[in-house]
Specification:
heterodimer; A: 298 residues; Rossmann fold; six-stranded parallel β-sheet; four-stranded parallel β-sheet; globular; B: 284 residues; alpha/beta; 5 strands; 38% helix
């Protein structure tokens, strides 16, 4: 996803010289073209995320569009107060690109598990959060990202075929279970639907999650109305993240429903493994979710 | 008495000496800052007084900020990274006519924009600060923009001692040195105090000049209350980015405030205010 994203950013920056791209010493091979052809617009600032956000804000204060790049927690939690004071307070066009959301870098250890960034970033005013699950959503997000001159936080995961072939249902099917998801964990929802053929499962994926678009709101509301069990799924903490956003937005329509937020529980698990293993460990994989749903059906 | 004092109008002074005019500008700043801090029952007066001469010479001779250009994006910038000295910057803006004098009395008052730590909601203020160690990176971003767009503008950043405890300041120093941002001029208000105690008792900074030289800066050190030193340092040309260590006295200009950390927090009472004004006018 990041390659596709930065090809578009590169093309945009070539045409718009008031675009700057900063990386905090990450993105091996990703920025070769930038380094070669955008000498006055691309800078590797070294492993110094706080300074990177300060620089980005200073550049953006001169009406520039700035992209900053790092891995999950380093682009968010490490420099959170800089994002708050320098970027959000001044409502600047700084686009924080966070690679490897959730458990993408599972085996590298807990420092690289980016599962609190949505919670932290969504607490800040003025900033939008984009968490695309496939290239269709990414393209839609990119149009906004390149157009709007406000702070943005962008979570970039990996493409996979399951997600690529997915399309949101805008009109409700038969009553049953609604699963609202965000980001690349959409694939677990798709797998879940495949193994629970007897249940009527509708899946709805949201990529712009802090302030949900009116189109998504309308669609989700239609789906909530017809379904009895509403679940949210995210590769992020279960408290204060995407599930909470859905709850806050649709509170009044969830009164007579069974509502459940599925996300990483409130603890640090010390075992590590790849993304699939970590999802299983935190019970975010489709088999664990299926068990959970079956229990609630009894 | 505090409200009776009338500022001296610099333009009416016929003497040619820049230093005399700077001195009067600085005097006006100290008086107005006192009024603001007493009226707003706020704090950090001693931290403002240590950098009054730095602010005065920048506004009078280097920044070239005025009522006509303050809304422009492309102009010299001043980042007061030590945001707790905000009253000093507001007072400067009123001296050059961007802010009305009477508006200074909104400082730290309910329903005003004039926060104790400096706010860019006030016209002419380039950056809101208050969290230490954030202004230098922001200023470096602006300096980088000017350099890459071949715009001959300067960015002045005023740092406090305490900000040199913050890792982010050193991140920014590495960047400024690596990219040779010579259009960025750092002035450290070296009053040797931080929030609770002296810097050297808290987290030693010395030998600071050696540290900064080794980081690749042209480091100039001298009396931060002496306009001749400040002018010379600000005008010094170098192939390296410039870092001016302006040695100052916390609370400078009022005897009972000088080097007394309690004036990081207190505001003067009526008797103390009158004594302060008398001293500032006499310029002991």
């Amino acid at each position: 996803m990041r390659e596709k994203f930065f090809i578009d950013v590169y093309n945009y920056a070539r045409k718009n010289p008031k675009t700057f791209i900063l990386t905090a010493d990450l993105g091996y091979k990703l920025f070769d073209n930038f380094e070669k052809n955008l000498k006055n617009q691309f800078f590797n600032v070294g492993a110094s995320e706080q300074n990177m956000i300060g620089l980005a804000a200073g550049l953006a204060s001169m009406n520039a569009k700035v992209f900053v790049y790092s891995i999950g927690n380093f682009a968010s939690l490490r420099c959170l107060e800089f994002i708050r004071n320098c970027v959000c307070y001044n409502n600047l066009d700084v686009n924080i690109v966070s690679n490897g959301p959730g458990f993408t870098y599972g085996s590298l250890g807990f420092t690289h598990h980016s599962i609190e960034d949505i919670v932290a970033i969504r607490s800040l005013p003025n900033i939008s959060i984009y968490n695309p699950s496939n290239s269709h959503e990414l393209n839609e997000n990119l149009r906004e990202i390149l157009k709007f001159k406000t702070p943005k936080y962008i979570r970039l995961g990996k493409f996979n075929n399951l997600n690529e072939n997915f399309k949101n249902q805008s009109s409700p099917i038969k009553p049953g279970i609604l699963l609202i998801t965000t980001g690349q964990i959409l694939e677990e929802a798709i797998k879940l639907k495949a193994i629970m053929k007897n249940e009527k499962i509708s899946i709805y994926s949201v990529s712009k999650i802090k302030k949900i678009s009116s189109k998504d709101k309308k669609n989700i509301l239609n789906l909530i109305k017809i379904n009895k069990k509403i679940y949210t799924l995210e590769e992020n903490r279960s408290q204060g993240g995407f599930g909470s956003i859905i709850l806050e937005n649709f509170f009044q329509h969830l009164k007579d429903k069974e509502f459940c937020i599925i996300g990483a529980e409130d603890c640090f698990k010390k075992k590590i493994g790849d993304q699939k293993f970590m999802r299983e460990l935190y019970k975010l994989d489709h088999l664990s979710i299926a068990k959970r749903i079956k229990r609630s059906l009894k | 008495m505090i409200n009776e004092y009338i500022d001296i109008n610099i333009t009416s002074i016929k003497m040619n000496s820049k230093n005399i005019k700077n001195k009067i500008f600085a005097k006006n700043l100290r008086i107005n800052v006192l009024k603001m801090i007493v009226n707003g029952r706020s704090s950090h007066i001693a931290s403002v007084y240590s950098c009054v001469e730095i602010l005065a010479i920048l506004f009078r001779e280097f920044l070239k900020l005025n009522i006509k250009n303050y809304k422009n994006k492309i102009r010299n910038k001043l980042i007061l990274s030590k945001g707790h000295a905000g009253a000093g910057l507001y007072a400067c803006l009123s001296e050059i006519g961007i802010l009305k004098k009477k508006n200074l009395l909104n400082h730290c008052k309910n329903n005003s924009y004039m926060s104790g730590h400096v706010s860019s909601s006030i016209p002419g203020v380039d950056f809101s600060s208050g969290s230490l160690g954030q202004g230098l990176g922001y200023g470096a971003g602006q300096a980088l923009f000017f350099k890459k767009k071949l715009l001959h503008k300067k960015v002045f950043v005023i740092l406090s001692d305490g900000e040199l405890n913050e890792g982010s300041t050193w991140e920014s120093l590495l960047f400024i040195s690596h990219h040779k941002l010579k259009n960025l001029i750092i002035i450290l208000d070296r009053n040797f105090y931080q929030s609770i105690k002296k810097t050297e008792e808290t987290l030693a900074l010395e030998p600071l000049k050696n540290k900064l030289n080794s980081f690749g800066f042209c480091t100039l050190e001298g009396d931060g209350h002496d306009f001749n030193f400040l002018r010379k340092a600000l005008k010094t040309k170098s192939n390296k980015p410039k870092f001016i260590i302006a040695n100052t006295i916390k609370g400078k200009g009022v005897d009972y405030m000088e080097n007394n950390i309690s004036w990081h927090y207190k505001f003067p009472n009526i008797i103390e205010s009158e004594s302060a004004i008398t001293q500032i006018i006499k310029n002991r």
